[in-house]
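hiii, so i know i said id send this last week but things got crazy w the move. better late than never?? heres the sequnce for the chain we talked about at the cafe, plus the structure i predicted for it. fair warning i was half asleep when i ran it
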Amino acid sequence: MDTVKFVHCADIHLDAPIRDNGIGTYSDIRRKDIRNAFLRILDTVKQENAQLLLISGDFFEQKTTGKSTMEWLYMMLSQLQVPVVIIPGNHDPYILNSWYRCWEWPSNVTVLTPENPSLIIEELNLHIYGMGFSTYKEDAPDLSVVSPPVKDKFNIFMFHGTLDMNFTNQAYKPVTSADLERLGYDYYALGHFHRSCSEYPLKNAYNPGSPEPLGFDEQGVHGIFLVTMRKEYNRVVTEVSKIKTANRQYHDTVLDVTGCKTLDEVKIRILALLEGFDPERDIIRIKLKGRTGFSLEEEVLSTFISQDWLYLRIDNETRKAFDLEELLLDNSLAGAFAREMKKLIDQAREELEGDPENKDLQQKEEKLDLALSFGLEALSTGRIEWPGEF
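okay and structure toks below
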C-alpha cells in the first residue's frame, strides 16, 4: 500500500476533574463536552474513511475514571471498524492498577507499553512504535531502546512528553527535535501539551493539542489532525489538516472601565464587550481594569450579567481614582507622597523607554504605580482594599 490515512489525537482527558463555578451542573456539562468531542473524533474517522486512529496519551484520567466510562468506551471503540492505537500518558500511566492493564479492550484496540512497544499492521504497510508513561512523572527517556524504522513501510513514532522546551523540574519526558530526528521515523505523533503545534524544528512532528479545551490557558480553536502519508519516488510525503472538535472556547479578556461614574455604566461596557461572544459556546473571564471613583462588587455584576451564560466570571482589578494633578499641588502628606512617587515613576518610565522589552523594568513601573495607588488609598481611608495578589 502506497498511502495511509489516519486521525491523530491526544489529551482527551475523559472524566477530568473540573472545578465547578457555583452552578451545580457546570462540571457535569463540561465532562459531557469532553465525551462529545471524543465522539466527533470517531465520527471524523468514519466520515473521512480514515484507516487508523492514534491516541497519543492522556486518553482518560486514571484517578477519576470509573467502570461506567470504561464500559462506554468499550462500546464506542468496538463500533469503529479500524485499528485504534493508544499510548499511556502522565494522566493515564501504565501503572499496576491502570485500566490499560485491568480492562479488556476491544479487539481493534492496541495499547503500546514497555513490554509491547511496537506494532506492525501489514494491510496498511505500517510500523508504529510507542513511548508513553509508566508512572505519573518521568524524566528524559532512553531513546536507544526505540527500534529502528522498518524498511519499505510507513513508520510512525507515538510519543507523550515535552518537546523542545527548556523546562527543569517541570519537564515530563523532555526530548529535543534533534533527539527524535535521529530515530528516522516518517511521522511523530505527539501528545502532552494542550495547545496544537505543527511548527517544530522537526518538520514531521505534530501535536494536535486537546480536542476539548480544559481551562483558560487553552484558548483558541481545538481539534485533531487528519493525516495522509503516501510514498512518492522513494520518499514519504505527508499532508496534515486540522479538524475542529471542541464544543466550547475559552476567552480571557480585559476591560478598562476608567471613566465610568456608575455601576450601570460598567454594566453597559461589559454588555457591549460580550456582544461578540456566543453564550452557548464561549467560556468567559473578564478582568476589570482602570480607575473608578466607586466600589465595584463582583457578585452584583456577575449575578446581573451571567444568567444566560454557562460560565462568565468577572474579576475586579480596578483601582481607586485620584486627581493626581491636584494632589501634586497639595501641601498635605498625601501631596508630598504623590510628588515623591511621581519622581520614581517618571524615572522608571525613562529607563523603560530606553529598554522597552525589559521585563524587570516593566514590573518595576507597575509596582511603583501600584504603590502610589495603595499609598494614596491608605492615606485617604486608613486601609487598603486589594482584589488580587501583589
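btw Residues 247 and 326 are 52 Å apart (CA to CA). thought thatd interest u
miss u guys!!
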